[in-house]
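Example with several molecule types.
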Amino acid sequence: MTDLPMIEAAAARARGVVRETPLLSSPFLDAIAGRPVYAKAEVLQHTGSFKFRGGWSAVSALDPATRARGVLAFSSGNHAQGVAHAAQLHGVPAIIIMPRDAPALKIENTRALGAEVVLYDRAGGENREEIGARLQAERGMTLIKPFDEPQVIAGQGTCGLEIAAQAAALGITSGTVLTCCGGGGLTSGIALALEAHAPGFTVRPVEPQGFDDTARSLAAGTRTGHGAPEVGLCDAILTPMPGAITFPIMSRLCGPGIVVTELEVKEAMRLAAVRLKLVVEPGGAVALAAALFHGRDLADGPVIATLSGGNADPEVYAGILAGG
Amino acid sequence: MTDLPMIEAAAARARGVVRETPLLSSPFLDAIAGRPVYAKAEVLQHTGSFKFRGGWSAVSALDPATRARGVLAFSSGNHAQGVAHAAQLHGVPAIIIMPRDAPALKIENTRALGAEVVLYDRAGGENREEIGARLQAERGMTLIKPFDEPQVIAGQGTCGLEIAAQAAALGITSGTVLTCCGGGGLTSGIALALEAHAPGFTVRPVEPQGFDDTARSLAAGTRTGHGAPEVGLCDAILTPMPGAITFPIMSRLCGPGIVVTELEVKEAMRLAAVRLKLVVEPGGAVALAAALFHGRDLADGPVIATLSGGNADPEVYAGILAGG
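Resulting structure tokens for the full complex:
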């Protein structure tokens, strides 16, 4: 189970490799939100999302002989790139199992980062876990799960260590941290780091309407699925249910979930471009959308929102910037 | 005349106010350029461009009684916002004289940052210097010139101090620094800082085709105008001629100028979005365009390119991302 020493060990392994991403702000965003808003710019992380933190943490934690046989991951895209790049930097092979309908850019990037990509048909009912287990057995590679894996959660937790230090440097010791939440790896990692280093903050997971499995699970006190197919604008965070490892952490440490609409997500993407000069993908913009448009759901005080990823398909992104 | 102690004093005044912007990279950009490429992300500076460095330096250098009477600037947009925000943070008035055809976003932002905006008709032959001089005399405000002003150059030089330190941290002590060049404030400031702190680097100004007054001036050994009207895609850097103060510095310290096409600029903007997750305006992308597409004009070794500004009008930007 992930704990603070694991996160701190992941941070030590990450030094000089994982980027410390900036905490950015704009008076224009503060005016919209009616409170100070800070954006944790994980879009500037290597591979364009926080997922490189977890990928690097998991791959670097393997013993060298195991690591040399390579790693395996299934992912709609950002975890794929994070693991592929971590494997590439370690000089070990990676196979990534991706849905055929993942954004083309994420598939291309994963291949360009040196990984072998195996595509599967999400709509056709193929089970990615079975494909992964088979490849794992055949090739002796280690499966790096996208969120329900203690070393991955520890890696995402390094983002929380940075948030705690950066907020303290700004003199901010209490407020709300909003996280873009799929399976809960980033959310639970950040929550563990802040529990120790910035206990004045409440972590609140944010999800898109219709894919609010974490909000429902937190409300019900038990893991609950959203019941929708994993296809939608916010492709990075449509995971069907919180993880068996991540949910108990979130249940213990996080406030109620927040649900945002696709219109709010698109407007947050446009504002991130105009006001922060950052390209944010839909799934990476849900927390900023909550910060800007859900003040009624938030306690008073400053808000820190993760901008979790920026790997939007260029045509889709251009359409959204143009008002689509 | 700007010198290293002035730049270091500007850096001391900037501490805790001006952002240290990150030096970012992508293996995909390295592959295109065939060499390591680093982007100095000044789009993440307050107000979305490096101009806040010069604005803050100049306003903070005024004696308090003078500063209290307010400041005045003429600018097509980024200097306007830099000075407006610096005045706002000091709690003193600012009047900004802007061309009526400047990008709407830059005019709106300047007003939103608390400045009074006076628009003039660039095509109609109005002389912005005369308007500035009249307002200066009437109101006793201090004119902050956009580039030909020692304290502004000193402020832009703080970007060079950061480049020197960040390159050294990466173990890079020689190579080429490409700057987006209008009047030469950023270029000359960076060149002075690197002369002292990273003498292994050659600074080379980059301009858009048709507006290559600095390249021509460096080649001729004397200040030479580009002769074109100040209207074009790269609105931020269409200044007619290098400055009387900036040119001797560039002439002494900088390598030959490089000229890029509008197509190269647009492709650099798209790649900055996809690979660095940064929104860059046309005038802020010329140096990256040179890094990616003008390898034949560059000495071997790594390249550091300034991404000078990100204040593109959203509709224009969306059109370029969509391939326009």
